[in-house]
Amino acid sequence: MPRESLKSKQERAKSILEILYEQYPDAHCALIHNTPLELLVATILSAQCTDKKVNQVTQTLFQKYKCPEDYASVDYHELEQDIKSIGLFRSKAKNLIKMGQRLVDVYDSKVPDKMDDLTSLGGVGRKTANVVLGNIFGINEGIVVDTHVGRITSLLGLTNKKDAKAIEIDLVKVFKHHQKEWTIISHLFIDHGRAICIARRPKCYDCPLATLCPAKPF
User: Fold this and answer.
1) Residue 15 and which of 105, 117, 139, 208 are 20 to 30 A apart at CA?
2) Looking at 92, 127, 170, 191, which residue is catalytic?
């Protein structure tokens, strides 16, 4: 099979987007939050954990920790207990404290709106920074690549990379003409991964993207 050109991928990606918009008109960030800090914390907690579980934990966590100072000054073991039902809770507790301390010391207790500043915070990589930039500040600097986005875009032949950063580079090229939509694009793929393209039991015969998917079994 000949290698698909970038232009061809871009055209196919446009068709994929049109279908996903129609299929998931209410696609949005599933992490419950009311402030930039809350979304930052929730996204840090979401690594290797479901949004549903994170929302259960943050329902009480956000009542106790309301500002960066609360995270900066809390005893590590106390915070660890507050998030112990979440995977990787020990490292996440350490990262949340480091995050709070840096926000207080460097950013006047405000969540910054630049990629380099965000990724200087404890527990924050490009994925978390893109979530905050896109959903809080409306800045589409990159595309969030979680397990759903990475898996589905690979199946669709939009990338052949395995590393999240490399996948993002590919997707930025493929969706080059849709930069204003980069934030919603990840939500669309995530919703599709939860509803149809389920990792262990994909519903390929019910998939509205089947005609555009090289990985379909028929």
Assistant:
1) 139
2) 127
Nearest CA among 45, 39, 37 for reference residue 92: 45
Identity at 28, one-letter amino acid code: H
CATH at residue 174: 1.10.1670.10
State the residue for tokens 């068709």.
15
> Is the same domain home to 17 and 90?
no
**Is 84 designated active site?**
no
Give the relative orientation of helices 126-136 and 164-174 as an angle to the nearest 10 degrees: 40
**90/149 same-domain check:** no
pLDDT of residue 1: 55
Check residue 96 and give its pLDDT: 98
Query: Catalytic residue among 146, 161, 173, 216, which?
Result: 146
127 flagged as catalytic: yes
* Residue 1 domain flag: no
Q: How far is CA 10 from the centre of its chain?
A: 22
- Positions in the chain short of pLDDT 70: 1
CB neighbour class for 187 (10 Å; exposed up to 12, middle 13-18, buried from 19): buried
On whether both 132 and 42 belong to a single domain, the answer is yes
Which pLDDT belongs to residue 3? 85
The two tokens of residue 154 are 């690979």
**Residue range of the domain that includes 207:** 6-28+143-212
In a domain, 199, yes or no: yes
